[in-house]
Structures are given as C-alpha cells and as structure tokens.
Amino acid sequence: MEFLDRYQQIVADAITKYTFKDKPTELYDPMNYIISHGGKRLRPIMVLMACDLFGGDLKEAIKPALAIEFFHNFTLIHDDIMDEAPLRRNKPTIHTLHGINVGILSGDGLMLKAYKFFEDLEPEVFKACVRIFTHTGLLLCEGQQYDINFETQTDVTFDDYIRMITYKTGVLSASSFEIGALIAKANFKDAKAIFNFGKHIGIAFQIMDDYLDVFGDQAQFGKKHAGDIYENKKTVLYLMAREHATEEERKELDYWYSKKTDNIDKVYNVEKIFRRTKVDEKALRLIEKHNEIGQSYLKKIAIPEDKKKPFAELANYLLRRES
Amino acid sequence: MEFLDRYQQIVADAITKYTFKDKPTELYDPMNYIISHGGKRLRPIMVLMACDLFGGDLKEAIKPALAIEFFHNFTLIHDDIMDEAPLRRNKPTIHTLHGINVGILSGDGLMLKAYKFFEDLEPEVFKACVRIFTHTGLLLCEGQQYDINFETQTDVTFDDYIRMITYKTGVLSASSFEIGALIAKANFKDAKAIFNFGKHIGIAFQIMDDYLDVFGDQAQFGKKHAGDIYENKKTVLYLMAREHATEEERKELDYWYSKKTDNIDKVYNVEKIFRRTKVDEKALRLIEKHNEIGQSYLKKIAIPEDKKKPFAELANYLLRRES
Fold it and tell me: What SUPFAM superfamilies does UniProt report for this protein, alphabetically (chains A, B) (predicted)?
C-alpha cells in the first residue's frame, strides 16, 4: 500500500531526527536501540492518518506520533522483562543485554520521554492528548495485569477476554487515531468515531492473532504452530471451545490445559475439540463482526468516502494477514 | 512544627480520600499498600506550602500534591527492585511480597496515575505543571543511572556527584515547590526562585545524609553506622577526602574501596583519612553554603517575611536532623 509506505517513511525520518542524544548514554542508548529495530510502526502511522483525514497539519502530528511509538516500546521493554523474553524482533532484548535494572529504568525513561513529545501542542490540545495518553497507558497496565491473572484464573469468561484484549491491544490503536484527530481539531463526535474504529479493528486483529496461531499458515504467520496451546493460553479459541464443548470435551480440555507439555498429542487433541466446536468459524465471524462495527463508525464520519479509503485498506491489511 | 502537622493532615486525608478503588486489584492494591505506609510526605507538603505562600487556593493544589507523592512512590517501587531491597519503611517491599513483575507493573501504573492527578487544572496550568513533572521524572531517571554508573566508575568527580544528587534528590523538592507556585499563579520569576530554594535545600539535605552516615549519632540517625563506607559508596565525604588526601592516603582509600568487606578495620582506617582530610568540616560548610544559596532565593521573593517563615523552618528541620 503506497500510503503506508509514505507514512512509514515520515515516521522513520522522524525517529532518526529525534534519536536521543541525552546523557547518560547507559540510560538512553537502550531506548534508541529498541526504537531503531522498527517493527511495523503502525501506531504512529495511525496518528498521522487521522490527522490527515481531518485536514490537520501533519507536521504538528509527527512528535505526538512518536510519543505513541515510544510509549509502545516502553511497554515492550517492561513486558519482555516480565515474560523473560530473550529476543524481540530477532534482536536480544534490553534486559538480556544490560540486565533487568537497565531494562526497568530505560523503560521508565522512555515513558517519560513520550510525554515530552506532546509539548509542542498548544495547551488545550496538549491537555486533551495527554489525558487520552495517560488513560490509555493505565488501561494497558490493567490489560497486562488481567493477562497475568488469566494464567492462574480458572473462571475466565469470554467477556473477561474481550476486555483484556481491548485494553492490551484495542485501546492504543484507538487512541492513536483519536490523538491524530484532536491535533487536526476534529470535533468530539468524529474523534470518538475514529477512536471506536481503531478499537474494534484492534480487537479483530487480536482475535485474528489467536486464530492464526492454530489455523494459520505457519510459514506466513512466522510463529511456532499452536504456541498458545502449548502455553495453555486462554485464547478466544479456548474460551469459545470450552463454552460449546460437551461435558466430556470440557474435561479433556481442562486436562490438557492443566499441564505444560511439549507432547504433540496435546495439540492434536485440543485442535480436534477446536474443530468439533467449530471455533475456527466462530472466530472468523467474530473478527468480521468487529471489523463491521469498526467500519460502521468510520461511515459515521462526514468526510468524503475516498478520503477514508486508507482506513478501510489498513483494516484489510491487518485482518487479511494470511492472504 | 505546627504548620507541618497541619499540612501532613491535609495530605493524609487526601490519600485516604483518593485511595485507588480501580480494578484489577492485583495492580492497584500494591500502589495503595506503599502509599499507605507514609513516610514524612514532605514533597506533597512542599506543593501545598508554595501554593499557600503565593496566595493560591489550597484545594486546587491537593491532587497535584498527591501526584508528586505518587510519583515519588513509583520511583521507590522500582528502586527497591533494582536495589533488591527486602524492606521499605519497615514493611516488606512490593516485589518481595508479589514478585518483580507486579513491582514493575504497579510502579508503571502509579507513574501514570500521578499524571491523572493534574487533570483538574485548567489547560495552561496543566501544561506548565505536566512539563515540569515530566522533566523532573527524566532527571530522576538520569540521576538514578548516574548513581548506578558510579558503582563501577573510578573517575567520579565532585561535580558528577553534585549533579547526581541534584537530579536524584534536589529536583523533586524543587519541582514540588514550583508546581505549588504555578497553581497559585505565581509569576515566572518567583516560581523559579522557589524552585531554586527547593533545589539547594535538597542538595544540602543529601550532603547531610552522607555526613550523618559517618559522623551522625547512630541512635538518632537510625541507620547502620558507616553503611556507605561498607558499601563503597562514592559519597561527598569520599570524594572530598580523595581530593585532599596525600598520595599515600589516596592509595589506602582506593585499596579499601576496591573490595566489599565487613572488616571493621576498613571503617576505622577510612574514617581516619576522613578526619585527617577534615571532610567533616568541609561537608558541614558545603551544607551551609547550599542552605545559604537556598535562603538567598527565598529572599528574592517579594512577599512579607513572616509568610516565608515556614520555609526557613522547614530548611532548619531538614538540615538539623541530629539536634
């Protein structure tokens, strides 16, 4: 997608321009290190897209877009410590290279640096953006804590799960769009509409992630097949399977999810229940449902349809990852 | 001091009133836990004092005062993980009770919650306060990193040290005063003056901390005698001693500081050098110097002297801890 490349270039240039040169380097180098490894950088792009949609000045949105990217990377640094992850984007994680203390501290610093990147905005817009930003950050922490709770919680419901992924994934995309809209001085209703578009696309994206873990083409998806099953993750597939399983199947699911094993029988049997309860179809329908809700919010915005095309394309890109 | 008791009560009431009731409790309970343990809560009191000095509405300053206290406690949670500290204010630290992951995450959340507590301010004041707050947070991270660097750095200078304690201790008191002043709509010059008062009192306080570690009355000071020497801490005493030592004394200092030992000979010999180089007197003079600089900033503020009395009293209280 041409428009994505264009935004990606803007973000990449800004990241180069705003590389931290502060001291001590032991604090700031790890921040530059993780930011430089890229990833798709979709969240800052969302800020720019929304700013463009509502006719704002893209230059004003660039530093706030970086704020979102920095914030995202701060969460990655701390999440990697919590998950004891040795690699991120195929590079050693910060705590692996420099120890947990540097990971904690450079993560903290990166979160604070993110706030600085709103400071060029005039006070009214500054306050509106920083409020959203702080609120989003708190929801991310809450989502992360719910996710941790799920590991030991036996009565996780479908609604619990949707809330968790909304907080962990949906809200940051949603807020990225909303912040872009506010910088462009969009009205409250439109800003909320683009927020909700982002939220539901984010939810759909996360459900797709769960789906592809089991039903995806491994070569394209690029992760270990059924990693979530091996890890006993309470994904949407698991939760829906448990809901629609027979008494006997539920017992079998509970049996397999009560232990961590690399036994291939586990994946084989769990997947059999997944197919029997048709959670693959259900998950695809759920993705479609959230996509449609997202699109309906997009439709509410009184702007010519052709200007909204990139948003539909982005949703397609995110939700058709296999094709 | 009567005025301190009054402010302390206001802060204590506000902390009770704003106890976090959010979910998940696994995230928010640790925040309430550390905040409820108190400490002197001098920083939020500084916000209130400055607001009062400049004739502001104390009610507007209460939530920002809590923001400072929350931020301070966030740094304590993360510092305790980094220092592997089992106790804080005689209670088990959060990571000791709940593990490192909960410590990291509830610290992150507490920092974010702190930002929320400025949101009742009107946009202009909000932006001014949040800017100071973010900047202060970054300096604290930098100070913490310098402190970590000092452990292995052999060429720490006196200026390095002053910068480190300024960032780690001075700036947060300074900013607490400044934020209180801004909420009261003090002019820029006065806000900077009260900032600088706080900064130099903070620096003096930290030097006093180093001094009392060796020359304090152990019973009153309440810490292990010469803990800094056992820990090879590059305190102001060590740095000044090294500067004024003979070649032979310097070699002896380097010898003792090259190893960690509980050997009482270490303390005996290091203290002998401290006394020979007269760093006790030098430290007291340095404390007095920073106190005087602080007082000179206080003098510049065009407000009747009797209104400033609590500030001089607070400085006295902080810098005469032994008497």
Answer: Terpenoid synthases
